[in-house]
Amino acid sequence: TFTVTNEGNVTLSNVVVTDPLPGLSPITFVSGDTNNDGNLDIDEVWVYTATYAVTQADIDAGEVVNQATVVAQDTNGDSVSDLSGTTINNDDQTIVELCQDAQIAIVKEGDIDSGDCTAVGDVITYTFTVTNEGNVTLSNVVVTDPLPGLSTITFVSGDTNNDGNLDIDEVWVYTATYAVTQADIDAGEVVNQATVVAEDTNGDPVSDLSGTTINNDDPTIIELCQDAQIALVKTGVFLGEGDCAEVGDQINYTFTVTNQGNVPLSDVLVTDPMFEAPNPIVSIDFVGGDDNNNGLLDIDEVWVYTANYVIIQDDIDAGEVINQALVEALDVNGDLVSDLSGTAIDNDNPTIVDLCQQTGIALEKTGVFDDNNGDGSAQVGETITYSFTVTNTGSITLYNITIDDPLVPVQGGPIVSLAPGESDSTTFTAVYVITQQDLDAGEVYNEATVFGDDIFGNTIQADDDEVVVLPQVLPGVFEIFNGITPNNDGLNDYFRIDGIENYPNNNVQIFNRWGVLVFERDNYNNAENAFRGVSEGRVTVKKGDLLPTGTYYYIIRFFGDENPGQNNYSGYLYLNR
């Protein structure tokens, strides 16, 4: 508003108000020429107005400063003028103060370039977006970030007029990169905050902590994938010195533990039921691998444990030792992670140590002549007692052991099981009755076979033969006595035929004087089969009756190839009571 007054004592004409302020609208007369004569009378107050749109430069300056000029002519045509003032009494410039609100904002965002899960060295790309949230231009913009390892923060774009100032309508973008560390993965995140600092038009600083949006100052959090994994590989080496495994030989086991995840693991524990009750308790010893001695299984470490196992018979019988260990640990969050041992990192196959197996069985057969009648010589009907000793000569247990002997049935058995190196001499026996053929041969020869089953159902066998020499007294002259006095006085009480025992394949018949058969025996001998004067006939003399004194007739026959000289003998026998 421009107020023009006539401060003199003469009328003024051709009044003109001017203002050099760029952008000012035309100065328009509003009122005051009360008599409408176009002259500024001494009692008139003329009012003019104009409008002005504030510019950014004005706001940056904090004020709009300007001064108008009024020019008129007095009655003599001379020019009269005045610079505008804030009152009639001064020529001070008109100053309109403008509110200045210097504000800046920074938003920090991050994007990680990783595979299925975060690994050390994966790159996070940070974008810093800076905006002028106030109404004044800002200069000397600087973005800083205290994150160790962050690359240089680089200006990318946004200074559209290239004046080096952050104007209120500009968005400046910066970027930086960061390589993820193991400590970051252990923490599960990267948390940080940037700061932007600038100067307003008065040289005063203005700043902001970065946020996730313009409206907050929350730290930027990049969550990192944590993948806790552990692997156990178990290998075994047979330490035996022989060709095949024996009870007491040892297997040396090596347990290799690796961290297959991306976070360190604590409280690592390797267990194996092979070394726990009811088996003998053996410690699994840590050998090495904790390179930094921090008690943590770091992702680049390999921990090694060892233990020795003593082989038992059951292992040899199985032909292998097969088992599996377990490793357990805690991740950085205290959660349990475990793995069953495998033959390689990428499997959980049980560890198998093959054991050499040998099968073998031996049979020892012995025979002893029993000399049942104690006369020192073998007789038909006397016996030989056989004993059989079975030995397991292999390395695995044998089962269902039996013996077959074609000469004689074997008593006893089967042996349910026989451990390697074990012998059994008591289970199997046999008794053989000597025959005339044996006596003629002077010995008894035969072969027995032992059979046994291994754990695979295969049958193995072994043979052994034995010759038992039969002690004999050479037979005397074959002689038939022709008298009998059966009165039990020990003399001539029976029909005596010396040497007939040497020819047991015989038949003896006795007839009375009427030709009636009163006695007949096969395999006649001078013991239990002898004729003692007792009838066995059924016609004239009842069986069991004593035969009367008289003359009788005998016939002796021999069968087969053996006889005392001829196949038949006959003659008279006198019985006297």
How is this fold's topology laid out?
Elements: E1 2-5, E2 13-18, E3 28-31, E4 45-49, H1 56-61, E5 63-66, E6 69-73, E7 79-83, E8 94-97, E9 104-113, E10 123-132, E11 138-144, E12 154-157, E13 165-166, E14 171-179, H2 182-187, E15 189-192, E16 195-199, E17 205-209, E18 220-223, E19 230-238, E20 250-259, E21 266-271, E22 285-288, E23 302-310, H3 313-318, E24 320-323, E25 326-330, E26 336-340, E27 351-354, E28 361-369, E29 383-392, E30 398-404, E31 415-418, E32 423-433, H4 436-441, E33 443-453, E34 459-469, E35 479-480, E36 483-484, E37 497-498, E38 506-511, E39 517-522, E40 550-558, E41 568-575
Parallel strand pairs: 36-41
Antiparallel strand pairs: 1-4, 2-6, 3-4, 5-8, 6-7, 9-10, 10-14, 11-13, 11-16, 12-14, 15-18, 16-17, 19-20, 20-23, 21-25, 22-23, 24-27, 25-26, 28-29, 29-32, 30-31, 30-33, 33-34, 35-37, 38-39, 38-40, 40-41
What characterizes the major β-sheet? 5 strands, mixed
- What percent strand? 35-45%
Number of strands: 41
Oligomer: single chain
Number of helices: 4
Structural class: mainly beta
Q: End-to-end distance, in Å?
A: 193 Å
What does the overall shape look like?
rod-shaped
Which regions have little confidence, pLDDT < 50, spanning 5+ residues? Answer: none
Over the alpha carbons, how many angstroms does the gyration radius reach?
66 Å
Helix content: under 10%
Strand order of the biggest β-sheet:
36-41-40-38-39
What's the overall average pLDDT, rounded? 92
